[in-house]
Design brief:
- The protein has 173 residues and is mainly beta.
- The protein has a single domain, classed as Immunoglobulins (Immunoglobulin-like, Sandwich), CATH 2.60.40.
- The protein is built from 2 helices and 9 strands, in the order E-H-E-E-E-E-E-E-E-E-H.
- The strands form 2 sheets. It has a 5-stranded mixed β-sheet with strand order 2-9-8-4-5, covered by helices on one side. It has a 4-stranded antiparallel β-sheet with strand order 1-3-7-6.
- The longest helix is centred in the last third of the chain and has 11 residues.
Length: 173
Amino acid sequence: LCEFLILMNLNCETNNAEHRTKKLSKDQLIVRRGQPFTVTAELTQPFYPDRDPLTFTAVTGEQPSEDLGTKSCFGIPNKIQRSPSAKAVWKVDLGKISNPATGSLSLTITPPADTPVGQYDLFARLKDTETLLTTLVVLFNPWCPGRYNLQWKWELPLIYSLGLWTGTHTHTM
């Protein structure tokens, strides 16, 4: 994959099932905002977060901006320099089954409840090397208790016109 990454497993089937998007795709990661998803990574070397932080950038649109929430920089450890007015900041946590000494990482990534919906490129950076991990889709999450209610004004018509989801909280059609 790249200089620092041997393997990246997006766990699409599992994540899509947990995000109620498994009928949309088994091969592409399609998640809902405000809900975490887990990926696994095998690094070419041990991971020492205090010495060599692992940083991520999620971007969407033609001119991504932290101030608009269309660009988010986050990492392990979370010591990222951001714009003071950054919106929709994603987060990543190192999973309990990770073994940093061998470079085996389980990463739980969460796009916040107010993340703009859309297609995102997700990049990872370790030391001086950056690589595109995946292109994923972030959908509206009607089940997310922390969602930003004012966005209903423009998202709800989009959801119904595009048919992104229909059904109940337990059965997506």
